[in-house]
Amino acid sequence: MKPLTKDFRHLSRPEKIKQLKDHGWIKEESEQILLNNSEIDKELLENLIENVIGQGTLPVGVLPEIIVEDKAYAVPMMVEEPSVVAAASFGSKLFNKSGGLKVVQSDNIKLGQIVFDNVTDTAQLSKDILNLESDIRQVADQVYPSILKRGGGYRKIETDEFPEEGMLSLKVHIDTRDAMGANIINTILEGIAHYLETQLSNTNILMSILSNYSTTSVIRIEGKIAISDLEKDEVSGAEVAHRMERASVLAHIDPYRAVTHNKGVMNGISSVVLASGNDTRSVEAGAHAYASKDGQYRSLTTWKYDSDNQFLVGTIELPLTLGIIGGSIDLLPISKVTLDLLGVKTAQELAHIVAAVGLAQNFSACRALVSEGIQQGHMNLHYKSLAIKIGAKGSEIQLITEALKSMDKPNLEAAQGLLYEMRNN
């Protein structure tokens, strides 16, 4: 695959798609899906969800290049919010200049729960269950033998006791390999639950269900950016790095800042997750729970100024349970294009990319915040939206956007006046 050209963002949509195909990033089938804006098949649509009345679409943009573990990726991002793709692209560009992002930790075990209620002695029940572990493993293997052929399946069990409430949660660790895994996990849980009901007396199983909080699937990505690349107008790179480190401290200690900080992280993460056909709600819930793992809501990323080596070092850590097969991934046209474009071989590789994009996104947002103020960038996008709203076309959009920047009252009425003058002079 050839790198995308530096003028990629200035190309028309068909030209962008053509370059992706010509440079070897996507196959012809994906090219046609993108060119035709392929919708979900009507019959499939009727069977995906209930009470179908139509379908909506979101724009899909491309982050031209992000290097993760020495491999370059072009990353699709499905999102309605302006500046998200641009911010992730800018952050990635600076990380790439310093060698790209590295995987520090990569776990891929999912969790399911079998919950016992009305337990009189949680400690004894825990002991009884753990004594049956070898049998539980056999049951799990028999219930879903096909996952064993792919190297996955049951891994281990552990218990969480809640004696005051009379509850015990049996956590089952399962490797679903490259599948999203909901059906695999729930099927194995049901098999184990049925077995335990036959082996344990006076037990009341309340539920058996996967957990979207997989602390056993934590991804940790790290990258660095040269201080010389951080300079912004009159602000030195060292000052930007110092201010970003302090902003990182704030996001760690202040939940009010941490929530907004992490929202920016999830701008990048959820955009890629959505494009890939994975479950954004699951990823969001797990990420925010992890941000609160020590009892206070904190940032998912950290930024540190390495003054000795003259780098800003960024780290992101969160649980990610993704798939490249199963669920809606195999059914939705855009998810097929996404996986074709990314060229990932495993779900874990996809998770690495997703986390890396989240870190790149967060870098750009924090840098803007501590150097120029986030409002400046947002207002530029607001002016562009005004131009589009009043019906400006082609080059008119950029001309009106630039003109609004220098006006005292750059509102809708002013934009309409500019467009009228353009078309009548």
TrEMBL record:
This enzyme's EC code(s): 1.1.1.88
Pathway: Metabolic intermediate metabolism; (R)-mevalonate degradation; (S)-3-hydroxy-3-methylglutaryl-CoA from (R)-mevalonate: step 1/1
GO MF, one example: hydroxymethylglutaryl-CoA reductase (NADH) activity
Keyword entries, A-Z: NAD, Oxidoreductase
UniProt superkingdom: Bacteria
PANTHER family: 3-HYDROXY-3-METHYLGLUTARYL-COENZYME A REDUCTASE
Protein name per Swiss-Prot or TrEMBL: 3-hydroxy-3-methylglutaryl coenzyme A reductase
Source species of the chain: Mammaliicoccus sciuri (Staphylococcus sciuri)
